[in-house]
Amino acid sequence: MAYTVLARRYRSQTFDDVVGQDALAQTLKNAIQTGRVAHAYLFTGTRGVGKTTMARILAKALNCLKADGPTTQPCLKCDSCVSINTGDDIDVIEIDGASNTGVDDVRQLRQNAIYRPARARYKIYIIDEVHMLSTQAFNALLKILEEPPEHVKFIFATTEPNKVLPTIQSRCQRFDFHSIRPADIAKQLEFILTQEKIAYEKDLIIHLSRLANGSMRDALSLTDQLISAGVEPLTVELLRQLLGQSGQENLSSLLGHMGTSQAPAALDCLGRMLTKGQSPSQIVDSLIDVMRDLMILKITGADSELLILTDQEKQQMVRLAESFDVPALIYGITALERLRWTIRNSESARALLEATLLRFTLSEHFIGIDQLLSRPALGKAQVASPVKKKSIESLPQASSVNRSSDTLFEDNRPATPAHVDIEANLESLQAGWSAILEAVKQASPANVGFLAAGIPSSFSNGVVTLLFPASAEFARKMSETRAGVLAEMLASVTGIDLQLRFETGQVSQAAAPRPKGARTSHKQNQEVLDDPAVRTLLVGLNASVTQIEAIGQDL
Question: Which of 168, 278, 319, 432 is most buried per CB count within 10 Å?
Fold first, then answer.
């Protein structure tokens, strides 16, 4: 007798047996009990989540011969139930949308649909991968789908609902099947292996449920593959050998060397993994998975439900996580994902993988934009100094906009701003505001742009209120985050101890002085944005321009 794979042998037979889709199963049961079964259904979701299985269960529920009418508990023994299970029922027609894509196939379906079922209550058409139908075939289906004969039901299944015409979707009840939770997959696998009387390691179930990626069929296919090896008990090591995956010890060792910037050791470890027959693509995939787990652990902790790990793996992850920070892991994941697509068509896959891992391993020797901005005085010696902790500082981080910056790029820029003589009153402050901004600009061009967006509107008890127009709301918020630095800068320029408040209101154009070069015209802005060097920098950093200022020269 031919062997039947686990995915077919343990296919759910009733609504109550369906794994991980309880809400959808209950909805269909309620529709049957209340007599509100629609004439067309659209089942959507990724592979292996139960779309076709649910379609067959619904067909059995509608056509079970032992019941007086549609039932939520088909007998599974009558001729109709048995033949539906095997796909041989004459009244339940299963059609592969991928091989019956033409308009002629749909026309034949329409011609046959008018005839009543041979023995059952309904003639049911189950069209799998319905998105593969051509536009002409969809259009030919519209009329009968909108007003089918009373004895006809349609059930469509697809993994790509976006390719199904809106006119088709509007005539169906749509059910979205979600990925099955790893816990549900693990429970089902334990049940099946117990039923099959096969010994297995407990940790194996966790690995299988993780590799299944939400698909029950994928989990059962992997299990079938393991069983066919003929070795008991089934182990994690056997699974890794079967799939050609890196062992957790090798991955942990590689990431440990990367986290502590041991480049030679990291290359040696990578070389051993490649020598054992693992391809660069497999190593990249494994590293992405581990880095993702490290990132989640750093954010949510080791007990998070988002982590599908054994107890031993959690302990290893906790130790590894001490060598990384979250931005470093985010950068590593994105860099490896780009590398994954690059090495598929490259003849230098190993060199590219080694270069990427070295870039990540040696990242502590690069200084970042946020560090540059946070330093009060930038010198050549400071630029060459390494970062003390393991992080990707060569990328700009969102937190950098909240850090103070006083001097940038030029070593001969004045350490303190020029003094502007004014009196401690509003009139004198407003009159000298342009000169104050010019002085601030000479010492701190990064800060003058925010001050220049507002004007002094009041001065009382040492508190200056700067008024910003509604269009400069961003500048006001940024000024608030660095109020202390701006107040200190103004005190250095004016010689008056003061505090700053920021408000939004209506500002007349004439009352808004600004230093030369603090803002640029639209034409000048466009010239800057069109500069090839600027465009390359923006693409490389995945950044966007929020403001353009002239620094060190008048535009």
Answer: 168
